[in-house]
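Regression test case RT-17, inverse folding.

Input:
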């Protein structure tokens, strides 16, 4: 991870001291369709990705957490099909959540009738022993791991300040497949410092890389960038150096993904997620105008609930034909963007700005 990006990210996270160390308990968060997230407070991620506002350390009160998880699991919504286990970073990180607590939570979840259990974690926290144990505890459920990748492009990972080695990640994904546990990989649309065309191409290349290098069981979850409070990206946005992406950019990516791969593509955080701190909205969703907003939301929720490749193809084709003045404006903005520096020069320039602004 880069020194300046890391330090600046932690400055943003520490802006409000009330968040770090705050007492919170487990909670159930709807994530769209039949999917829900079981959030468990943890010691917080120690990485410093520029778009992420996880990483706040919360006291881990084992007994209270277990009691709350028991309660949540007893009263799960009737339509639930997928339950995602999530912490303030990586659920399988022993630094964040004691190993014993990870397994105790899984044992409670194992007793529910939820069809699919997903665990969100960094690939570096996935070990042979853990996968074996997870499969043993969650026997009878379909189990998968959700791992953050964002991009397979080296320069984009540098911009995100994302600590991953793509070859290592592929190895973990392959090993999981051999052991009988599926993975889904999170990929972002809308990296800072890239032009719109570069952002779209970066995501398409990443999708192609995953399709080529990972087992067929690997799912890809696309996220349009949401600008969250307490992130370095929010600082860049406030300084006028990052623009919130258009929904039409996200749609363009979906349209350009090979049609026969759409059954492996899922979407998340398209504008349905709430992120509140101190009772205030702390998130900026992708943008569109009021004329097409409802149509876009309808598309997203239909796509999330689509249960066949043909249905996804039909939905993407249909939304592709929608016209709107903000879509035309998006196309113009994309065509007009010009840059005269390569990506590494842009990153160096950004770090220089951050160095001055954060006095680093
Ligand atoms: S994206 Fe993942 S690895 Fe990066 S800071 Fe957030 S929780 Fe940590
Ligand atoms: Zn519009």
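Golden output:
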């Amino acid at each position: 991870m880069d020194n300046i990006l890391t330090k600046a990210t932690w400055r943003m996270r520490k802006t409000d001291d009330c968040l770090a160390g705050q007492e919170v308990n487990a909670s159930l968060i709807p994530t769209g369709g039949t999917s829900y997230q079981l959030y468990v407070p943890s010691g917080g991620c120690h990485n410093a990705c520029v778009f992420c506002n996880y990483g706040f350390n919360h006291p881990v009160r084992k007994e209270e957490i277990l009691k709350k998880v028991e309660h949540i699991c007893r009263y799960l919504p009737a339509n639930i099909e997928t339950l995602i286990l999530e912490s303030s970073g990586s659920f399988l990180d022993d630094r964040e959540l004691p190993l014993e607590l990870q397994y105790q939570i899984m044992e409670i979840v194992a007793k529910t009738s939820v069809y699919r259990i997903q665990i969100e974690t960094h690939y570096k926290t996935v070990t042979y022993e853990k996968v074996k144990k997870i499969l043993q505890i969650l026997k009878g459920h379909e189990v998968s791991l959700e791992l953050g990748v964002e991009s397979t492009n080296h320069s984009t990972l540098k911009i995100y300040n994302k600590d991953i080695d793509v070859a290592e990640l592929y190895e973990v994904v392959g090993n999981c497949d051999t052991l009988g546990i599926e993975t889904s990989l999170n990929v972002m649309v809308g990296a800072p410092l890239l032009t719109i065309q570069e952002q779209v191409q970066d995501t398409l290349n990443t999708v192609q890389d995953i399709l080529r290098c990972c087992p067929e069981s690997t799912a890809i979850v696309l996220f349009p960038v949401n600008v969250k409070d307490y992130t370095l990206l929010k600082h860049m946005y406030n300084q006028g150096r990052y623009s919130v992406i258009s929904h039409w950019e996200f749609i363009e990516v979906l349209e350009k993904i090979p049609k026969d791969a759409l059954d492996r593509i899922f979407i998340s955080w398209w504008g349905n997620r709430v992120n509140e701190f101190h009772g205030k909205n702390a998130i900026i969703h992708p943008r569109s105008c009021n004329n097409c907003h409802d149509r876009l939301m309808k598309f997203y929720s239909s796509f999330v609930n689509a249960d066949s490749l043909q249905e996804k193809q039909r939905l993407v084709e249909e939304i592709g034909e929608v016209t709107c003045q903000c879509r035309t404006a998006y196309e113009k903005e994309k065509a007009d963007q010009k840059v005269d520096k390569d990506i590494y020069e842009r990153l160096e320039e950004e770090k220089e700005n951050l160095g001055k602004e954060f006095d680093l």
